[in-house]
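A note from the maintainers: we've had questions about how concatenated examples are separated. There is no special marker in the raw files; a new sequence line simply starts the next protein. For clarity in this README we add a label.
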Amino acid sequence: MSPRPPVAVGKGHSLNSGWGWCVVAASFVIHTIVGGIAYSGAVWLMILQRYFDCSQYETAWLGAILLAVATLGGECFDEPCTSSFLHIVFAVNFCYWNFHEQNK
């Protein structure tokens, strides 16, 4: 099997039609907001403590749960996205929609 020749891309032409920068910008904004909220927990801790009139111990659970969900969420979604599980999901989805369209 011989390797394919490289695809020449002309100047000013991108393969993703320019949407790559939108994805990068959206990812940056979301990570900035979520990371900013998660890592400014001490400021939110005092505000929530005053608002709900409770102890530091009770209020600290909010920040701990936020970081735990973010960490465990990454671990839970890592395996399905990097294994053959994702290929199986795509194959089942493809077969389902083909069957659905044929029986319309």
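[label: protein 2]
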Amino acid sequence: MATESTEERPAGNGGTPKKAKDIREVMEKVRDLAKLAERDDSEEARNAAVKAIKLLRQHEIVMIPKHELEKMASKVNGAIEAERKINEQKTMNIVMGFVGGLLVGGKKLF
């Protein structure tokens, strides 16, 4: 069974923090309004679309297309991998410097 998150989100423009549950409820309302807006070209459909946009703005919710999120995730993963490789190289340089220093100094390890 899924548990409800009560994680607080920072508020923008000095507003009150939002909880994940509150955001989820707003998104459910927006989804329902979007379904209504897609039905036909009536005044009711237009009003639903406007109300959905107003809700998103009021709650400072930004919708990002999935392909954009995937591009961002790919870049983040690439940066993490690059950092890992740099750290591995730094560790290798330290070890090689230590061993090289011992060899140059004529010290025996064992």
